[in-house]
Every structure is written in C-alpha cells, then in structure tokens.
Amino acid sequence: MRPEMDQLPGSCKNWFPVSRWVDVANDDYGVTWITLDAPMIEVGGPNGQDVGLPNQSVDLAQACGTIATVYSWAMNNHWGTNYRAYQQGLVTFRFILRPHRGANHGEATRLALARVSP
C-alpha cells in the first residue's frame, strides 16, 4: 500500500497497520524495515496525538516531501474504554533494518517472510 496513492479520499492517514514490513526506497537505494512486534506506524511525523475530528488526517504528500520518515506506534493509550490508559512492565520490540539498492518489493516480502516465520 502506498500512502495517498492507494487510499480512499477521507480515509484515516494518522496510522497505518503493517503486516510485516515497510520499505522506503527510490530508484537508487532504500531500506526495508521489518517490524516483528509493533504492527502500527505513522508516516511523516508523530501525528497520532492529533486525533479529534472524523476526517482529520495528515497531509502525507506535504509531510513526506522528499524525506520519508516512519515512526513505530508501539503502544496505544488513546482509548481508555477497553484498555488501561497506561501500560507497565518490560516490553520487547524487535525490528530488522536492511539497506538495499533500488526498490524491490518482491525481495522485501521474501526477506520479511523469512524473518517472521523462520
């Protein structure tokens, strides 16, 4: 899924679920980020705290520009109705970063699948 390009107008752009990996690349180089324990991200900046209005969302085209920044949304304490508003104890989050040349989504998928289901 490509933010902005593959989204319906008015859809949430504050957070994105990640199945296995995120790849940020151009024609020359990039990095594949495999997230094993935290399947939600923010793109462009930490914008999740700005939740409020139904269609309030990040302008990803403006936020990303030529620099793509991806943040892990490791824990959630926005919705206290079903969960505690705090989390305690030790928690481990595992990430794998792999630099590469050029964009190759097939290779990123193979790499991620090998890491999440060795």
Description of the molecule:
It is a single chain. The protein is of the alpha+beta class. The chain has one domain. It is 14% helix and 22% strand. It has a 3-stranded antiparallel sheet.
Give, in spatial order, the strands making up the sheet with the most strands.
1-4-5
Mean pLDDT: 76
Largest sheet: 3 strands, antiparallel
Q: Give the helix level as a range of percent.
A: 10-25%
Task: Determine the strand fraction and express it as a percent band.
Answer: 15-25%
Question: What series of H and E elements makes up the topology?
Answer: EEEEHEEH
Low-confidence stretches: 52-57
Gyration radius from CA atoms, angstroms: 16 Å
What is the terminal-to-terminal distance?
24 Å
How many helical stretches? 2
How many strand segments? 6
The number of domains is 1
